[in-house]
Design goal:
Elements: H1 8-14, E1 32-34, E2 37-39, H2 79-90, H3 94-108, E3 109-111, H4 114-118, H5 127-137, E4 140-142, H6 144-157, E5 162-167, E6 170-176, E7 187-189, E8 192-198, E9 220-223, H7 259-269
Parallel strand pairs: 3-4
Antiparallel strand pairs: 1-2, 5-6, 5-9, 6-8, 7-8
Amino acid sequence: MFLHKRTILFAALVLLLAIPACVVAMPSVNYYVEGRDIFDDWDICRTNAAGANGFFSITSGTELEPIIAEESLGENAAVAYSTGLKFVSEYPDINQRAEQIFYFVRDNVRYTSDKSQFGFPEFAQNADELGTIIVNEGVAYGDCEDYAVLLAVMYKGAGLRSALVLAPDHAAALVHLPEYKGAIRTLSVDGESGWVWAEATGSNNPLGWMPDGYEGKELRVQEIVDVAVIAGAPPDKEAITVIRNEGGGERGGVPVPSFFTIVAIMWFLSLFRRRRRG
């Protein structure tokens, strides 16, 4: 597991995040409560992206480590990775393969806020949780980071390079396709061109469509590496369950800032730089 030091400033910001007292449950892993957040059995926080163990491990500097993706990579690879792998034989052309994976996620996930689905301002799902729901139920529900993580893991399973990109109020995936002609524009990461924005949150979005306002901006990017986060011994804490609201209605709860609020604050505190793990 990747650990980063918290700064005093960041610790103060984290105190802004208050999670409703009611505890929610998903069948994939064991969850437990630590303070006002919910953690899984990899000791990754599902209700907060920020901090050393946040699901994106965002710190107050320029650090980003999407560790929740590592719950579905390496020795943890399962449904999402293997689903991506199936596209390899069916679509030998990598550009077509990338498009078909994009369409698979776009067409089988419905955009739904975490507040509507789980009753929390933030509750990240890992790629296998979302992928399993698609396999079992035909359609899954998630918000932008859920789409991004599922795409990134499936692309790795399909033998493609992928990355996670964060803007102040958004998350998306990138896929490296230097010969792809269908993108409206391509991006450069650490001086390497050919990265294509994968924005599957819109039902009619094509691969390569990028939301207005991000062109020319410094965005925080982390390439996904096919390694697993290692689960430790089960914590000596009472396990809880998190219930998915299939009705889609808003649940009650204390209005609190989401992790994107924290990212937006941090955006103005420090300049973002593109980085890629070697």
